[in-house]
## 1
Amino acid sequence: MREKDIAFFAVTNADANALTFQASLLEAPLRVAGICLDDTMNINNWQVPKSEFPSLVSQMNSGKIRIMTDHADSVDSVIGKITKAWVQNNQIHYQGEVLDKQISTKIERGYLTGVSIRGTARKVYCAECLRETTKEKGCKLHPDSGIIVSGLTLREISLVVSPAYANTSIYPLRS
């Protein structure tokens, strides 16, 4: 009988983290879909008009729009990306992928169901008189009026607990 060589090795925390990260890359992302925007005035009292939708869809179809959590500006909050977007029934629909396993489980079980867009507007108008204003100051003539944003550059779409638009959604796509 011949003895076999046995290799002993130690695994450090850094090695374990790297192995966990590599294993997570081997798992397929959760494919998701939903609605991220419609043409109504939201609970924050601002609106994106339908005329802005083609630009937003183009930005989303670029492959550069990330799916994040809670609009946080951190690497850890990036959980996926948008892969496809289109306009249907005065709403922007999207598809994407989520790589975070814990977040994926929450989406699959229906614990997380809403999203919110984040972007920068070139111009802001009073919803009542359509005069250019600022989001911070609002319209002097109509202080209780909502605002309409124009020239929106989309930064990301975040999973949120309480979305400003009531009709937003995220759900798993089944093959």
## 2
Amino acid sequence: MSRLRQVGLPWRPDKADSAGRFAVRTGSGAQVLRQGSITLAILITCCTAWAPDAAAQDDVLVGHIELSGGAGIFGGAALGTRDADLRTTTANQPFRLFTASSRMAMGPLFDARLGVALSPRYAVEAHLGYGRPELRTELSSDAEGAPSITAVESVDQYVIDGGLVLHLGRLGSGVRPFVTAGAGYLRQLHEGQVVVEDGTVFYAGGGLKYGLISRSQGLVKIVGLRGDARLNVLSGGIHVDDRVRRHAAVSGGVFVVF
């Protein structure tokens, strides 16, 4: 059983069961698939038109491996609201016991990336992200007039995705902006790893790279700093209704080119 941190009156087991049923449902990813595909196509088309010629990209080492790692913040989002209804003998008039509203809170993010430059302009990149946000479920509008209470549990969240990176023109000495978009796999585990929820993630974003060290000899070619900002569109996983959720994420770290 998940450990619950309670706010307000003591937790009531009968309500915990109902809230648990509402908090875990599997939704269709057809809508987010269409939205993600359209977003990816528009982003690549627009940025290709704005990108500079390859001659200006001579500091991107084609065919070399880039590793990066860092930490940041994964933004929160509402998961939905649902009433716990008791069936009655009166048709279409259920009796509401209480209302459950769930939200995934903002939490720390740790990520690692592996990329390869296909050309001075384009690269492909795989990404692994891990976070441990809090799942907050508030029970309100109690039929017996009890005050609202909030149950909290920690969720282990894994994101494995990949996509295309488009390098843009320099902003200054050593500063290289880029945009990126792609899709991947979402895995969320309830506290205690009792229940596992799978889903899909689409993302679009960008960032900056700043080279600190560059050399032509040796195993390590470039060492620098990297900052990323992404909009993640999640489908499936832990949620109440079938709507997609949008989570912003920012992170910073170090990159190394071999």
## 3
Amino acid sequence: MPECIYWLHTEMEERVSAVNREFHTVRGYQMLNAEKKLLTSSMEDYLEMICRLCGEEGYARINQLAERLHVRPSSATKVVQRLALCGMIDYQRYGIIRLTEKGRGVGGYLLHRHSVLETFLQNLGIQETRLRDTEMIEHDISPHALERIESLNIFFSTYPEVLQQYRSFKVES
């Protein structure tokens, strides 16, 4: 696990341990998580997509980002400016968007998180709503839960016969 992600994981686990003994509403948990997060869920979505675009072309543009996220360019510009203020990207008005070292690190984690969750849902047999479900889960999952899900994904890829047994069981149930 990269050092910055390990620190983030350790810090969140320490803060969450006291809260784990208390029950909250979904919104309450989201508000607790918001206090600990550097980026909002929306900013994470934008950074994740910027990483995807930069992986394809080495840079991104506002119009590409807006098109891929199904938003207006003016909305994309506002979030991109906030990401630039956080040090995640380099951006000049009407110019190209490039990731900073910090943005590559955080964005890489976001892409990894997305991939782990999408694989997990695929293993469960979720088809039609997989992308939507991944997007809904990824912003609120704890690093510890993500780590365990990744471990399960690795288990299933190491022992595909177990995954097949699950799929057969699911069909029979």
## 4
Amino acid sequence: MSLPGWLLSKNITVWCNKALELLIPPVISDRKVVACFLNYLQGRGFRYYDVIKSPVDFPRCNRDSDCTAAQWTAALDLILGKRVLDIGCGRGKFLEKLSRRGFQCVGIDPNQDERMEHNLQILKGRVEEFGFQSGSFDTVLSFKTLEHIPDAKAVLADWKKIAHYRVILILPCQRYRRYVYDGHINFYPDEFQLRLQLGLSDDAVVKKIDGEWLVHEDVSTFDVQAISIFPYIYCRYSNRLPGLLFPVSVLRGVLRPRRFLHGCDHPEFLFA
């Protein structure tokens, strides 16, 4: 018998992780009975996950998201462009919010059924199965996924090829445990280990929100801070100002501004 996952909300999980990390020594917290109890509260049954003996996929928790509202808000502010890919999207709740804001979203998850809505498509499977070309998406997101993948560094390198401008990650901050309740096999207890294990560049920005890592790394050679503002001016006013001020052919070829700002129309839809 198990409980519905919403009984252990994400906010409660954050506090549980803080208690396990800061207050309870590993000799007590890294026990089968602790992992079983927390699994039970999240609706996965009274069972534990052994990182060494049984590195297999683990059932998802029965709740809409493994991220807090503050983490979603911070990630939303970091998105560049219109085309967004979410790897390990779960039920697609974050993508639904993005699609209502005008983003054109694709989500991939092996545990979800395929569906298609306005500005949103959910695909069932793993990202490598679809053969996306380099730069297919302006921004690639992945929330709480890499900690489940054995060769996370190589996988992230492949994701960067798919992204045209930016990759955004949310990852748990945990010290190593053998008996876990969340199916994690990779652990990032501090920023050094996070950067080392994932091969992040020196330019990657890492910060903590609600006790977990928020990472974003730009993969484009452009100055994204400068050009993420200018295309909005171009999209809004280029048809009204003299051609000398906005050389249309050059700007469209170099900046491709219609792929940037949220308010611009985007006639090409990836899965139209």
